[in-house]
Amino acid sequence: MPESPERPVATAARVYDYMLGGTHNSAVDREAAAHMVRSFPLAAVGARYNREFLGRVVRFLTGAGVRQFLDLGSGIPTVGNVHEIAQAEAPGARVVYVDYERDAVELGQRILSDNPDATALLADLREPDVVLGSPEVTGLLDFSRPVAVLMISVLHFVPDDAQALDLVRRYLSRLTSGSYFALSHLVRAEGRAGNLQRETRHVYNSTVAENLAIREPGQIAAFFAGLELVEPGLVAVPDWRPDDPDYVPDEEDVPRRVGLAGVGRVP
Ligand SMILES: C[S@@+](CC[C@H](N)C(=O)[O-])C[C@H]1O[C@@H](n2cnc3c(N)ncnc32)[C@H](O)[C@@H]1O
């Protein structure tokens, strides 16, 4: 768990909440975010792109008939949570949020106290047996039916490449045909975006409890091995099924170039 009671440190969950305009963060998180915004003024735009992708994915998945969601590294419940979107589209849709940041999970549990179809679990996603064997997961999710596993902007906090691949494989091995896996992940950028990205990662890794691993496109594609990639495939985060029918990708848009997103279906 990323907290140290003796000396407060910024955490990924609270820095991200601050970037999205949330209020569940402390001075140390705001300071880390301010450092980051100095090296990468568009960091908050990247966070917003990611959160919007999450919304589009959940609407796509409910449209595809999915009624169960396992949201790994779910973060601080902020506007546009998975259960809000899924249950608005499909009442009774079931959601288990998993995060290792205590504040995020406790807040989630309070918000969900009167929601029998959603819950929040305090656990480390690097322990799939603990997550999948927890009463929260076994009580709410039925793995003999399709489940969507979401790893949205979280796998880059697992720096070991082999461990990250193994984790995805272990979660996916539990899924039945018609299940889905959705991912967004920081990708190595080139040129000006690459320089900004390197500086930002340096600031992030020296101020936030978690370290960021930025991967190559091929490494990110490898997470989808054995799955059928949903159209349009693995693409820049805002390019994945944009809501705006007039959306045109902007090659100069730096935050657009630092993350990839995709959705795979279990055949
Ligand atoms: C950038 S936020 C993304 C939140 C949400 N998925 C979204 O995209 O809006 C990353 C979250 O992953 C969580 N996280 C990072 N490593 C984790 C781990 N090993 N186990 C559980 N949660 C983790 C952090 O606490 C944080 O809340």
What is the compact description of this entry?
Keywords: Methyltransferase, Transferase. The chain has helices spanning 12-19, 27-39, 43-63, 82-89, 102-111, 128-133, 135-140, 161-172, 191-207, 217-221, and strands at residues 68-72, 94-99, 118-122, 148-152, 180-186, 228-229, 235-236, 259-265.
| CATH class bucket | Alpha Beta
Assembly type of the shown chains?
single chain
Q: Major sheet: size, sense and barrel closure?
A: 8 strands, mixed
Strand composition percent? 5-15%
- Rg from Cα: 17 Å
Structural class assignment:
alpha/beta
Number of helices: 10
Overall shape: it is globular
What pattern of helices and strands is seen along the backbone? HHHEHEHEHHEHEHHEEE
Named once each, the bound ligands are:
S-adenosylmethionine
CATH topology: Rossmann fold
- Segments where pLDDT lies below 50 for 5+ residues? none
Report the count of strand segments.
8
Q: Mind telling me the CATH superfamily name?
A: Vaccinia Virus protein VP39
What is the second-level CATH architecture?
Answer: 3-Layer(aba) Sandwich
Number of separate structural domains: 1
Mean pLDDT: 93
Protein name: SAM-dependent methyltransferase
InterPro entries: SAM-dependent_MTases_sf, SAM_dep_MeTrfase_SAV2177_type
Keywords: Methyltransferase, Transferase
GO molecular function, one term: methyltransferase activity
